Amino acid sequence: MNEFISLLGQSLNQSPWLFITLSFIFAATIGSFLNVVIHRFPVMMKREWQQECNQYLQEYHSEIVTQIGIDKLNKPIDAFPEKYNLVVPGSACPKCKTAIKPWHNLPLLGWLMLKGKCAACHAPISARYPIIEFVTGLLIATLAWHFGPSWQFVFASILTFVLVALTGIDLDEMLLPDQMTLPLLWLGLIINLNHTFASPTDAIIGAAAGYLSLWFIFWLFKILTGKEGMGYGDFKLLAVFGAWLGWQMLPLVILLSSLVGAVVGITMIISKRLKQGNPIPFGPYIAAAGWIALLFGQQIVDWYLSTL
């Protein structure tokens, strides 16, 4: 087994384009699963919240019944008796509920074979699914080109997969789940114990500085305007990049995310796709800026300093 792994590593090192191609195919397959995560994970969270509220109401009902001695209250009904997670139920057309055949779930190819329509009822299938698969494959292929077969590539790929899911969820729900951001934060601190992307000291300072910098801006903005300018998930996502890349990269991540967010926001307002004053998710811009800093952060900083 060790000899096989050694030979495989040598082959990938000698054939970088083979490694890049295999990385794209593998990542596109993972992108197909990320489509499921983006759609189902917020639903799972909402169901969990509703079940917690339901449990509270049941306990409250029992307490009131005990106090008044008569059961005149309507008991809460179990909200979601059916099983629902990232695996169950199987993929099906949301319109006609026809189960999707395994070969129609092939990344990119499945959507093309179906010509973007359900095989049974011909309802349109969103182009978002192949787009996410293609973008995921492209991002991981870029990591393969940049890092080659290495532990940096493995960890950067894990970060990228979660960032794609977070971006999709934030665009849909304006939500960055703690179940995703916090494990990334701790993973960044752990891998940097071995100086994978930054020193342990820089990673710890980066995690704290990333969170507190946006936390401070949040409260300053709220005190001055009485409004909340961003969510706590944004603080945690910036802390993730502080933990992964070190505190030195945080100014670049904040600057890039602010510039991209401002350009996109102004463009949407001009095109009337967004009314002035309506909130927009900031997480995708932090994710994009952090990913760019992961690959080219030092080169960008060096170029900027050379222009001074």
From TrEMBL:
Q: Which UniProt keywords apply?
A: Cell inner membrane, Cell membrane, Hydrolase, Membrane, Methyltransferase, Multifunctional enzyme, Protease, S-adenosyl-L-methionine, Transferase, Transmembrane, Transmembrane helix
Q: Does the keyword Disulfide bond apply?
A: no
Q: Which residues form the signal peptide?
A: none
**Which residues are listed as membrane-spanning?**
17-38, 151-169, 181-198, 204-225, 237-270, 282-305
Compartments, record wording: Cell inner membrane; Cell membrane
Catalysed reactions, semicolon-separated: Typically cleaves a -Gly-|-Phe- bond to release an N-terminal, basic peptide of 5-8 residues from type IV prepilin, and then N-methylates the new N-terminal amino group, the methyl donor being S-adenosyl-L-methionine
**What's a Gene Ontology MF term here?**
aspartic-type endopeptidase activity
> Which GO BP terms, alphabetically?
methylation; signal peptide processing
The UniProt record lists the Prepilin peptidase A24 N-terminal domain at 25-147
Topological type in the membrane: Multi-pass membrane protein
Q: Which residues form the Prepilin type IV endopeptidase peptidase domain?
A: 158-266
Q: Does the keyword Methyltransferase apply?
A: yes
> What Enzyme Commission number does this protein have?
2.1.1.-, 3.4.23.43
Gene Ontology cellular component terms for the protein in this record: plasma membrane
Task: Report the function annotation for this chain.
Answer: Plays an essential role in type IV pili and type II pseudopili formation by proteolytically removing the leader sequence from substrate proteins and subsequently monomethylating the alpha-amino group of the newly exposed N-terminal phenylalanine.
Family according to the record: Belongs to the peptidase A24 family.
Give the PANTHER family listed for this entry.
PREPILIN LEADER PEPTIDASE_N-METHYLTRANSFERASE-RELATED (PTHR30487:SF0), TYPE 4 PREPILIN-LIKE PROTEINS LEADER PEPTIDE-PROCESSING ENZYME (PTHR30487)
Q: What is this protein called?
A: Prepilin leader peptidase/N-methyltransferase
Lineage of producing organism: Bacteria, Pseudomonadati, Pseudomonadota, Gammaproteobacteria, Alteromonadales
